[in-house]
Design goal:
Layout: H1 2-12, H2 20-31, H3 36-46, H4 53-80, H5 107-122, H6 125-144, H7 150-189, H8 191-195
Helix pairs in contact: 2-6, 3-4, 4-5, 4-7, 5-6, 5-7
């Protein structure tokens, strides 16, 4: 498995001769594209059609729970199965600065794939598919720039699956009370913006 991981990494990894525009695009994907996750979560809670707002907020909370589970699982796996990054063992080319901490599973991969799977399961197939495509772009970029292995990204995807599974199970236990408490807290904190019509009630 390690030999396959290394071979795939070297096949994807950029070199000093790679096109500058492609490296710049990869850096944008690797560093900035992940911001779509918090952006979507905030936007779906604050705005939307009145008749769909309740469904959107359920989606936001279920996605948030899935992310908490997934990141906790990823943290545990990182402790149990420490794996050096490619540049830490002198393999390939590193084109994006990064500390030489453990690489498995990818935190970026875990976050974007968890969000994508959540949207695929609990929102719309098209939105989940779009986020999965963004996840693939982020995964490719971080391998291309030499800071992750392909299996780090596969691990992030599988952990995302577990996060969504646990979230679905947890929602049946405490989902409705959590929604009520979060909605009450939101209305208390955002009372002025709600009254002015800047955000939804």
């Amino acid at each position: 498995m390690e030999s396959l991981n290394s071979a795939l990494f070297l096949w994807i990894n950029a070199t000093p001769h790679s096109p500058h525009w492609l490296v710049a695009l990869a850096i944008f994907f690797a560093r900035d594209l992940i911001a779509i996750v918090p952006g979507l979560i905030i936007a779906l809670w604050l705005w939307g059609p009145r008749d769909e707002l309740g469904v959107q907020r359920v989606l936001v909370l279920k996605t948030g729970i899935a992310l908490i589970y997934a990141m906790a699982i990823a943290w545990c796996l990182g402790l149990l199965f420490p794996h050096p990054r490619p540049f830490a063992i002198g393999l390939g080319y590193q084109l994006l600065p990064h500390i030489a901490n453990g690489s498995y599973p990818s935190d970026h991969g875990t976050a974007i794939f968890t969000c994508a799977l959540a949207f695929f399961c609990w929102h719309r197939r098209w939105s989940g598919t779009l986020l999965l495509a963004i996840g693939v772009a982020i995964a490719w970029s971080r391998i291309y720039l030499g800071i992750h292995w392909p299996l780090d990204m596969l691990g992030g995807f599988l952990v995302g699956c577990l996060g969504c599974l646990f979230s679905q199970m947890a929602w049946k236990l405490y989902g409705d009370p959590l929604l009520l408490h979060c909605a009450s807290l939101y209305r208390l904190i955002f009372a002025i913006p709600i009254r002015k019509g800047w955000v939804r009630n």
